[in-house]
Specification:
Layout: H1 6-33, H2 39-72, H3 74-77, H4 81-104, H5 107-124, H6 130-189
Helix pairs in contact: 1-2, 1-4, 2-4
């Protein structure tokens, strides 16, 4: 087995990625078990972990393909059947770890954490009357509408500025053409 064996290179990358995934999982689990954590950070760690796991799965698919190729002509690649079995075992073990991490950090668990945080916030929030809650909801909707209108108006203004600039360029071209036509008419009259 040569040092330049692509399987070894990708295997090392996968091992590093699995190490990073394990670290992210430890952070994720600490946040998941915490009664007070920043939900934005929790969601970020969850997404980063899922992305990492997906990347590992793609790398494992690539490694699986290389094993299939080697199995078709082992003499050509000079890799023993024992080495092929070790490689298959590495892939199987890594897939099991990825599957375990996926199950532990499932969408259902992440959503339950968000729901738990929302409940906690509602329970710990100062008591509001029905009307105060309604007023707050109406104020929020109004602010969202106002923000949307501001964005829309800004886009309209930008579009109008662009159109005015194009009109200005067109007027400049027409002015130049008018000047040329006027000069030509003057020459013809002379």
């Amino acid at each position: 087995m040569a040092d330049s064996d692509p399987f070894v290179v990708v295997k090392e990358e996968v091992e590093q990625s699995v190490g990073a995934a394990n670290s992210l999982y430890t952070k994720w689990k600490t946040m998941y078990e915490s009664s007070q954590c920043d939900m934005a950070e929790f969601e970020h760690v969850t997404n980063e972990l899922r992305t990492n796991l997906k990347s590992i799965e793609w790398d494992l698919e690539d490694l699986d393909e290389t094993i299939t190729i080697v199995e078709q002509s082992p003499d050509r690649f000079k890799i023993s059947m024992d080495e092929i079995r070790r490689r298959k075992q590495f892939i199987a073990d890594t897939r099991n770890r990825v599957k375990s991490l996926r199950q532990e950090t499932s969408e259902k668990k992440a959503k339950s954490k968000a729901t738990e945080q929302e409940r906690s916030a509602l329970i710990n929030a100062p008591a509001m009357s029905r009307y105060a809650k309604l007023d707050a909801a109406i104020d929020e909707q109004n602010q969202e509408f106002i923000d949307g209108q501001d964005q829309r108006q800004e886009m309209i203004i930008q579009e109008q500025d662009k159109q005015l600039e194009e009109v200005g360029q067109t007027i400049g071209v027409l002015k130049h053409m008018g000047t040329l036509i006027g000069e030509e008419l003057d020459e013809q009259n002379d």
